[in-house]
């Protein structure tokens, strides 16, 4: 095979490979170049975090406003403390905001939904959300159902 | 570097075994510079192994091989490659590179080892091809060549860098009379014209004896005959005589060792 | 009893010897300092033979595997009302596992066996020895370009396999089965992380490329130069490469995705 055609074909091959990598980066894994948005930290304590993990979404009215950074155990209260990173653009959460652990769809992953309250002051970096609603645990639900049935 | 000595290769006490088989048992050989030396012997005596030992492809178990004053088996990789550029080896199959033309095959060593320009390379390649009579076949692929032409093309490639010596591994095997004649003439011609030392490994007595200046006969790991062709033709040593004259029976027996014939025929196995 | 021990010992030593030779081989080849000007055309030629010529099988396989995954995935997920998740299922399976592994296996079968056979034939017709006699190091001239070409080509082929597979999956899911294309791609993008999934897949394919090409070229270099020898070596290339890929895949997956 003539060497010029050979070189061109190999060049195209390598180009196809790089193009594929770029497609995988952008279209498939949704890589964005806006990773470096600044954020502030907010904590919330839950009786039961259910299946919430790090990197889970934090949403308001369904819109993603941040991520869960870390989950630790509060040894005094035996509650799960969730550390969230909220984008700095969204800095108007009142101090009586509620945080609930919700499920996305039937098989879905857990995420945190925030509902803003009516206070005058806003949450700042390092603040703790007081009003929280734990994840729904199936066994407790069944237990409640049986208990109610027995009572009737 | 040429040290001007009479012998281009000196072998002393060479021993080599493959597994349990002893191939060489302390042989001594002197191959003189500028002459045609033939190394002959019955099939399987390890003539090809000897070639491999001389070119440093394998190391001997004992003994030394000196090529141009350098001990081959102690050379490091780079030095070995340097020495090999002064040697040429013509393989039985030619061993041309099958993916390129005759011209490209002959040009290969020039391209790898020299900084010649394309025009210089072209001149050298055409000269070498002309010397072997294949200048007109330069654009053909190895698959298009006949057996004899393949060997000649390989020979052109071997002498491309003007080596000091050329080793021919069974050059006459399977050749028709004309091909044989061509090769014989070429070997003789290149030896005189280029001042080469030629080593021919073969068991075609008649052809080899007609051009060789010296002959070595190997058998069972030892040199059983050395000298000029005339000397060996008239020798009284039985093994050499059987070989040189091509007798079917002699020190190398016709019958492979077996039971007594009568016993075998009378059905000894059935008992 | 002693005979069995002797046989075992001998084959054990033999196995060690082969591995030792393979190790020495790869070190010598990679250290055979390549002359960039002279070596580059050789590399290009091998990239063509090993990479470009493997494209048809890789593309077709990728397409069909992606389509089948989508089909099967849909049929399972639709019972749970979660058919929107088929996008992320296809993408994660391909990018993390099937892409690197299947492409490596196909490569071993197509390009690996052809490398072994080609080098083996060169050895059998004494072309390798001719190179040595002409003062050219066959490791530099024959082996190194093929090795490097394999290292470069397999990751590229894996990328292409992944993209074609995902596209095939989208064809089946969106165009045929009626999954909403917005949620197909959105779920996929949400679930597929570049660093964790795509890059790990690339790392896997690089590791596989190293192992498969090493085995293929070494088997060609090391075989007995007869026709049975070449046949045996080609089989060994395919079998050993496949086993190595699958074993390495488990180890890498455990390291990359196994922190529970």
Structure description:
The complex is a heterotrimer of chains A (152), B (271) and C (260). By secondary structure, chain A is of the alpha/beta class. Helices cover 26% and strands 34% of the residues of chain A. Chain A has two helices and eight strands. Chain A has helices at residues 3-28, 138-151; strands at residues 39-46, 57-60, 63-74, 79-87, 98-103, 110-115, 127-129, 131-133. Chain A is elongated, with a radius of gyration of 23 Å. Chain B is α/β, with parallel strands linked by helices. Helix content of chain B is 36%, strand content 24%. Chain B has helices at 47-54, 77-84, 102-113, 118-132, 147-158, 177-193, 205-211, 229-233, 238-245, 261-265, and strands at residues 7-18, 21-32, 36-40, 62-67, 70-71, 87-90, 165-169, 197-202, 214-219, 222-227. In chain B, the strands form two sheets. A six-stranded mixed beta sheet of chain B has the order 6-7-8-3-9-10, sandwiched between helices. In chain B, strands 2-1-4-5 form a four-stranded antiparallel beta sheet, with helices on one face. In chain B, helix 3 (102-113) packs parallel to helix 5. The longest helix of chain B is centred in the last third of the chain and has 17 residues, at 177-193. With 260 residues, chain C is mainly α. Chain C is built from nine helices and no strands. Chain C is elongated, with a radius of gyration of 22 Å. Classes of the chains: A alpha/beta (152), B alpha/beta (271), C mainly alpha (260). Chains in contact: A-C, B-C. The B-C interface holds B 55, 57, 77, 81-82, 84-85, 87-89, 91, 93, 95-98, 108-109, 112-113, 154, 157, 161 and C 38, 125-127, 129-130, 132-137.
**Coarse structural class of chain B:** alpha/beta
- What is the helix content of chain A? 25-40%
Uncertain runs of chain A are none
User: Hey, roughly how much beta strand do the residues of chain A contain?
Assistant: 25-35%
**Dominant shape of chain B:** globular
Strand order, main sheet of chain A: write it out. 7-1-4-3-2-6-5-8
Give the averaged pLDDT of chain B, no decimals: 83
* Low-pLDDT residue spans of chain B: none
Largest sheet data of chain B: 6 strands, mixed
Helix content of chain B: 25-40%
Q: Compute the average pLDDT of chain A.
A: 80
Taken in chain order, the helices and strands of chain A follow as: HEEEEEEEEH
